[in-house]
Amino acid sequence: MEVNMGALSRIPSWVKRLDDLSGNFTNKGIDGLAKYPMPGLVNRLCEMVIDKVFSPDELEAWINERSQSWVDEHAEEIANSRISQIALQADPRIFWSKVWNQLLGKSIFVPPVPKIKGKTKIAIERYKLILVFLPVISEADYPESFVKPNWGRYITEDKIERKPLPGRWVLVETIAPPCSDSPKAYGHGEDVLMNDLKPLSRFEFGNFAIENIAREFAKLLGLPSRALRLPTIEERNLIGNLFLCLNANMNMDLPDLGSGYSWEACLNKHRGDNNESFVVGLQGRGGLANVDLISNNGLSNNYSLGYRLLAVL
C-alpha cells in the first residue's frame, strides 16, 4: 500500500491495524487517519499544542501511542462490524435467513436476490442503501424487544389503512433522520441524493414532489419508476427495529429511525380523508412507536416533515 504520508515518515502500526480490521479505507483515508488523532484526543491535543508541551516528534509519538490504545480497545467491535458488512455483501440471502431465523426463532424462507445491474450496485454504494428482505410476518411474530407502532394513541385506529409486509427484497436509505429544524438536517448535513437532485428537497411534501423525486431517484438507480415509493408504516417500523438490532448485535452503524427531529411520511392512506397523511418517527411523540396524522395543506418545504424512499426489487 503506497500512501503519501506528508510530514509523517511512516504509517503508524495502529493505522495499519485499523485498516486490517475494517478493510474499508482508501489510501487517502489511511493518510488522513495517520495525520489526525482518534476520537477522544482532539481537545487534549489542542491543549498540548497551545501549551507547547511536546516537540513535533514527541507529539506524533503521543498521538500514535494513544491511538494504538483506542484501536486495541475497539478491535473486536471494528472487526465484527466488518464481518457483518462482508457477510451481507457476499450473500444477502444467507445473511437475512440467519437474521430472521435468530430473531423469530423459526425458519423463514428467503427467496433468491433479484439480479442487480452494475449501475444499481454503484448507486447503492453512493447513496448508502442497504439490501433488506422483508418477510410476510405480523406484529405478533416480532421479538419482545421490538418497538411496535402505537396505532391508536393519537388517531382512531380503524381510520388507518393497514398494509401487510410485502415478502420482497427492498433497498432502504440509511441516511440519518433530521437532527434539527433545518433544510440540511438529513444525514447531519450530508445528503448525497439531494445534492445530486438539486433543487429538489426531502422537505417538499405532496404527491407531485414525492413522485418527482422517486422518478429521478429511479433513474440514478437504474430501476423503473414504479419501484420507488414511500415506505408503509409497517415497513418503516420493522426496518427501524432491524437497524437497532443489527447495531446492537452485529456492531453495524445504522441510523436510529426513532430519533428524528421531524416526522417522515408514509404510504398508508386515511380511511375517509384523502387530504391527510400519516407520518411517523418523531422523537418527542414516541420515536419508532409514533403514528401521527397531519393535514397536507401548507406542508410544502415545512421542515417538520420529510421522507425517505424505498425501492422494491
- Count of DSSP-assigned helices: 10
Unreliable stretches: 1-9, 24-43
Our estimate of the beta-strand percent is 5-15%
Largest sheet: 4 strands, antiparallel
Average pLDDT metric = 79
Structural class from helices and strands?
alpha+beta
Number of strands: 8
N-to-C series of helices and strands? HHHHHHHEEHHEHEEEEE
Shape estimate:
globular
For the termini, the CA-CA separation is 38 Å
Structural features, described:
This protein is α+β, with helices and mostly antiparallel strands. It has two domains: 61 residues, no CATH class; 231 residues, no CATH class. It contains ten helices and eight strands. A four-stranded antiparallel beta sheet has the order 1-2-8-3. A four-stranded mixed beta sheet has the order 6-5-4-7, with no helix packed on it. Strand 4 and strand 5 form a beta hairpin. Helix 1 packs parallel to helix 4. The protein starts with 12 loop residues before the first helix and ends with a strand. The N terminus is likely disordered.
